[in-house]
Design a protein that fits this description.
heterodimer, A: mainly alpha, MetI-like fold, two-stranded antiparallel ribbon, 16 helices, 2 strands, B: mainly alpha, 15 helices, 0% strand, flat
C-alpha cells in the first residue's frame, strides 16, 4: 500500500468516525450540560452552606456536611443501614426468583404466551406510586377482617407450613427464616422482578437446543443440565440483572433514602447538606455494585 | 421399557409442577388488580353488606363520574398524555440516533462515552437535581426562568439523558449490534449515504424495539412523578391529582365517609392505569417479537 492509498483510507476512516460522533452528539451535549456539570456543582455544594434566593450563594464549610451526616444525623445512618441490609437480602431473592420463573416460562407449552404477558404486568402497573395507593385501603382491610372473623386463612400463602416442613428436614434456622421472608414478601419480589425475568428469558431462548439434546444422550438429568449448561450460559445476563436490580432498588423514587434527600433539597432547602448525603449515597451504591459484580466475575472465571 | 415410563412420569409431574407455580404466581399478580377493578363498581351499601365480598350486588358507574370530577379527569389526563407522548417520541428519536452511533461506528473515546451512558444510570438523580433546578431557574445569559415551561423536560429528552434513558440506549444499541455488517456495506456500495442507510435499512428493522422502548419510557414517566414535580411544577397532571386526592376529599362533605372515599380512590387508580394497560395491549406483540427475535437485553 502506497502513501496515497493510506491517506485516502485514513480519510475515509476519519469521515466515518466523524459520522459516528454526529450520531452520538445529542448524548454528549446532554451528558455534559445536564449530568456532568451539575454533578460537579453538587460536589462543590456538598462542601458549602448554600443559600438560594434567586441566585446561589455559597459559604465554604469544609467537610462539616459530611461530619454531620456520619456523626450527628442518626436518622440518615439508620436509613442507610436499613437500605443496605434490605438490599443484600433482596438481591439474591430477586435473582433466584426471576431465574426460576424464566426457566418455567421458557419452552413451548400450552398457555405460554399468556403467562409471558401476565408476568410482564408488574412492570406496567406496580412501579412507582401504585403500591402506595392501594397498600392502606380500608375496603381491603374490611374484606380481610370479615374473612378472619369467620376463621378463614386470608394470607396468600401459609409460610409457617413451609417452615415446619423445613424444620423437620433439619435445615439451618437462618436458611428457613430467609425462605419464609421470601415467601411472605412474594408480592414485592414479583413486583421488582419483571425486567429481570425478561432478561433471563431472552438469554434462555438463545441457548441452542442441541446442547441439551447432547447432554440428554449422555444421560444427564434435568438438574445436572441446568447447572452444567443453563447456569453458565446465562451468567453474563446475571451480571446485567445484578446491576439492574441494585440500581433499581437504590434509586427508585419510593426508596426512603432518596425521599429523604429530596426532602432536604426541596422541602427544607438544605441544599449543601443534601448534596453531601447524595454523594455519600452514590459512593455506597458504587461499593455495593462492585461487590456484586466481582462476585459474579469470580463465578464466571470458575466456569471458564 | 420401565425407564420409559419413569421418564414419562417425571415429565408429567414436571409439567404439573410448572403449571402449579405459574398459575399461582399469576394469581398473585392479577389478584390486586381484579380487586381494585371490582371495588370501583361497588356502592357503599355493598361494603356494609356482609354477603358481598368481591362481586358488587348492583354494579354502578357513578363512581367513575364522581372520580372524574375529583381528578378533573379529562383535563389532567389530556395534559399528561400530551406531554408524555411528545416527550417519549422525542426521546425515542434521540436514543435511536445515539444507540446507532454506539453500535455501528468506531470513534475516539467510544468506550469512555458509553461508560458515561452507564454512569447516567448509576448516579442517583438526587445528586444533580438541585443544581439542575438552579440552572433552569435562571437559564442562559438572559436568566430565563424555564421552569414555568415544559422546556427543561424536552431538553433532557432531546439530549437522551431523561429518566432511565441510559437503559433505553443500552437496549437499542444491543439490537442494532445484531444486524449483519454486510447489510451496511452492500448499501454503501450502492451509493447510499450513512443517514440513508440508517433511515431506510436500520429503522424498519427496529420497529419492535422502538415500540418496546416507547412503552418502557412511557410507563416509567407515568409512574415516576419526580421529574415533572421538579422541572415543570404548578401544572396539574393526573399523578399529582391522584397523590393529593385525600386532601381534596377533606374539602368536601365526603370528609367522613371513609368507605366511599376508598371506593373513589380505587376508581381513580383504575382510571390512572387505564392508559398504561391500553398501551400495553397495543405494544405487547412488539414486546413478544423483540423477545423472540433480537437479544433485547444482554
Amino acid at each position: 500500500m502506497n502513501f496515497f492509498d493510506f491517506w485516502k483510507q485514513s480519510r475515509l476512516v476519519r469521515k466515518r468516525e466523524l459520522k459516528g460522533l454526529i450520531f452520538v452528539l445529542p448524548f454528549i451535549i446532554g451528558f455534559f450540560a445536564f449530568i456532568f456539570f451539575p454533578m460537579m456543582q453538587s460536589f462543590i455544594y456538598s462542601f458549602n452552606d448554600l443559600k438560594f434566593d434567586g441566585k446561589v450563594s455559597l459559604e465554604f464549610m469544609g467537610i462539616e456536611n459530611y461530619k454531620r451526616a456520619f456523626t450527628v444525623d442518626t436518622d440518615f445512618r439508620k436509613l442507610l443501614l436499613d437500605s443496605l441490609s434490605s438490599m443484600t437480602v433482596n438481591v439474591p431473592i430477586i435473582l433466584i426468583f426471576s431465574m426460576l420463573v424464566a426457566v418455567f416460562l421458557n419452552g413451548k407449552f400450552p398457555g405460554q404466551p399468556v403467562f409471558q404477558i401476565i408476568f410482564f404486568i408488574p412492570v406496567i402497573v406496580s412501579a412507582g406510586i401504585m403500591p402506595n395507593l392501594i397498600s392502606d385501603d380500608i375496603i381491603r382491610r374490611t374484606i380481610i377482617n370479615a374473612a378472619s372473623a369467620t376463621g378463614e386463612d386470608t394470607s396468600l400463602f401459609n409460610a409457617s407450613l413451609v417452615g415446619d416442613l423445613f424444620m423437620r428436614m433439619g435445615l439451618p434456622n437462618g436458611f428457613i427464616e430467609y425462605i419464609i421472608y421470601a415467601i411472605t414478601n412474594i408480592l414485592e419480589v414479583i413486583n421488582s422482578s419483571g425486567i429481570q425475568i425478561l432478561v433471563f428469558l431472552i438469554a434462555l431462548k438463545a441457548i441452542p437446543r442441541s446442547l441439551y439434546e447432547a447432554s440428554q444422550i449422555e444421560g444427564a438429568t434435568a438438574w445436572e443440565s441446568f447447572w452444567k449448561i443453563t447456569f453458565p450460559m446465562v451468567l453474563p445476563q446475571t451480571l446485567v440483572n445484578v446491576v439492574y436490580t441494585v440500581i433499581d432498588a437504590f434509586s427508585n423514587n419510593v426508596n426512603p433514602v432518596m425521599q429523604t434527600i429530596t426532602d432536604y433539597n426541596f422541602s427544607s432547602f438544605q441544599f449543601g447538606y443534601a448534596a453531601s448525603l447524595a454523594w455519600t449515597y452514590f459512593f455506597i451504591i458504587i461499593a455495593v455494585l462492585c461487590f456484586f459484580v466481582l462476585l459474579i466475575k469470580q463465578l464466571m472465571k470458575h466456569y471458564n | 421399557m420401565k425407564l420409559e415410563t419413569k421418564k414419562k412420569t417425571i415429565w408429567i409431574l414436571g409439567g404439573f409442577f410448572r403449571y402449579l407455580i405459574l398459575v399461582g404466581l399469576s394469581f398473585i399478580i392479577i389478584y390486586p388488580l381484579i380487586i381494585t377493578l371490582l371495588i370501583s363498581f361497588m356502592q357503599s351499601s355493598d361494603i356494609y353488606d356482609t354477603a358481598v365480598r368481591f362481586i358488587p350486588k348492583s354494579p354502578t358507574l357513578q363512581n367513575y363520574v364522581d372520580a372524574s370530577i375529583f381528578l378533573d379527569y379529562w383535563k389532567t389526563i389530556g395534559i399528561s398524555l400530551a406531554l408524555n407522548i411528545s416527550l417519549c417520541l422525542i426521546e425515542m428519536i434521540s436514543c435511536l440516533l445515539v444507540a446507532y452511533g454506539f453500535a455501528r461506528f468506531k470513534f475516539p473515546f467510544r468506550n469512555l462515552l458509553f461508560g458515561c451512558v452507564i454512569l447516567t444510570l448509576l448516579v442517583p438523580y438526587s445528586i444533580y437535581f438541585a443544581p439542575l433546578y438552579f440552572q433552569f431557574q435562571s437559564y442562559g445569559p438572559f436568566d430565563w426562568n424555564l421552569l414555568t415551561t415544559p422546556l427543561p423536560m424536552f431538553l433532557l429528552s432531546a439530549t437522551a439523558v431523561g429518566l432511565k434513558d441510559g437503559l433505553i440506549i443500552y437496549i437499542m444499541r444491543q439490537s442494532f449490534k445484531g444486524y449483519p455488517k454486510e447489510l451496511e456495506e452492500a448499501a454503501a456500495v450502492d451509493g447510499a449515504g450513512t443517514f440513508k442507510v440508517f433511515a431506510k435499512i436500520m429503522l424498519p428493522g427496529a420497529v419492535a424495539v422502538f415500540f418496546t422502548c416507547f412503552m418502557f419510557a412511557f410507563v416509567w414517566k407515568w409512574t415516576d412523578p419526580t421529574y415533572s414535580e421538579i422541572f415543570f411544577p404548578n401544572t396539574e397532571f393526573i399523578w399529582t391529582k391522584l397523590s393529593t386526592i385525600d386532601m381534596q376529599f377533606e374539602l368536601t362533605d365526603l370528609k367522613n365517609d371513609y368507605y366511599y372515599r376508598a371506593i373513589l380512590k380505587n376508581t381513580s387508580v383504575v382510571m390512572y392505569i387505564l392508559p398504561l394497560l391500553l398501551l400495553f395491549m397495543f405494544t405487547k406483540r412488539f414486546l413478544v417479537e423483540s423477545i423472540e427475535t433480537t437479544g433485547l437485553v444482554g
